Amino acid sequence: MRPYPVARPVPKNGQLTVMVGGDPETFERAKPVIDSYAKMVGLMGPAGAGQLTKMVNQLCIAGIVQGLAEGIHFAKNAAWTPSR
């Protein structure tokens, strides 16, 4: 269970979201420590489930960012100027 590196001081502000994989008993023992630097912590399932959850999350975000970039690129190439 390791926080992911970020460009902002999120860990110091206690704003991390931690997705954990492991057995429930160990999770419950570790949760108070994780709560000290995370705004949200959840047990996603057995060992490896936290990493899988993080990967799915990153894929979803990447898809959104790519879609936005392609939409902006398409609008610029079409010489479209939105009124708002």
Quick overview:
Helices cover 54% and strands 17% of the residues.
Largest sheet, spatial ordering of strands: 1-2
Largest β sheet strand count, sense and barrel closure: 2 strands, parallel
What is the tally of helical segments? 3
Categorize the overall geometry.
elongated
State the oligomer. Answer: single chain
| Rg over CA atoms | 18 Å
Annotation, overall tally of beta strands: 2
Number of domains: 1
State the helicity in percent bands. 40-55%
SSE succession: HEHEH
Nearest-integer average pLDDT: 87
Terminal-residue CA separation: 44 Å
Secondary structure class reads: alpha+beta
Topology:
Elements: H1 10-13, E1 16-21, H2 24-35, E2 38-45, H3 49-77
Parallel strand pairs: 1-2
What does this structure look like?
This protein is an alpha+beta fold and 84 residues long. It has one domain (10-77). It is built from three helices and two strands, in the order αβαβα. Strands 1-2 form a two-stranded parallel sheet. The longest helix is centred in the last third of the chain and has 29 residues, at 49-77. The chain starts with 9 loop residues before the first helix and ends in a 7-residue tail after the last helix.
